[in-house]
Structures are given as C-alpha cells and as structure tokens.
Amino acid sequence: MHYRLMDILACPICKAFPLGLQVLDAAKGEEKHREKVGCELYCVYNGGLIAQLGKPDLVKDCETCFSYDLKEALLTCKNCGRWYPVIDSIPHMLPDDLRKEPEDREFLVRYESKIPEWVKTQGIPFHL
C-alpha cells in the first residue's frame, strides 16, 4: 500500500474521510520525478487537505511519498471507532461480520506497543 491510497480511502461502515494512518513497517524505494501533486483531496504524508496545505514544494514531497511501500499499518476511523489492519501491503477493510477475529487479534498483539490505547481498549470490532 502507498500513502497515496489514503487520498481515496474512507471508512466502509460510516464513510468518514480521511482515515487515520499509523505506519508500523515501511520500505523506501527509489524516488521518481513527478510533474504535479499526486493526491487530489488529502495528503497523509503532510497531514492535511491539499487545498489547505498550499506548500509550493508539495510536488517534491510527492516524489518522496510515492517511493514508500507501507508493509504493515493501522487505519483508524475516529468517527465510528473502527480500525483496519494493513497486512503485507493490503488494507483489510471488511465489514465486521466478515472479519477474522483470530487474525485481527494477532495483529493487535504483534503491534501492541505501537497501537493507540483507544484501539487496544475500545476498538471495533475487536480489541485486546
């Protein structure tokens, strides 16, 4: 998964946008020259809406941002309290009834020290 995907992801349950992102494991590749800003609405790399950032060097930041591959991460929705794991670069954003509790709990245990307290204690659909 790339940071760029955060520009289009919304919570599948409540449709909130943007989602929170906590990178747990990432690999940096080679930077590629860009002619324009890659995201349309939201830049998670700089933490804000594109229209509000107004940074002249945003294109340079895009070159760096596009070079990262997020291997493991946590997506969070502050609106409904849900969380979604990113495992092997794939966001697992399924409805609650289709999620695999053992897999989700194993993810929480593996990254327990890096996950926000609210996810560990009150996260939906599972928490520690």
Determine the mean pLDDT.
93
Quaternary structure state of the chains depicted:
single chain
Beta-strand proportion: 15-25%
CATH class: Mainly Beta
Quote the distance from N terminus to C terminus: 25 Å
Determine the structural class based on helices, strands and strand pairing.
Answer: alpha+beta
Helix content: 10-25%
Q: What is the CATH third-level topology name? A: N-terminal domain of TfIIb
SSE order: EEEHHEEEHH
Specify the overall morphology: globular
Domains (count): 1
Q: Determine Rg (CA atoms, Å).
A: 15 Å
| Architecture (CATH level 2) name | Single Sheet
Question: How many beta-strand elements?
Answer: 6
The largest pleated sheet is described as: 4 strands, antiparallel
Physical arrangement of strands within the biggest beta sheet: 1-4-5-6
Low-pLDDT stretches are none
- Total number of helical segments? 4
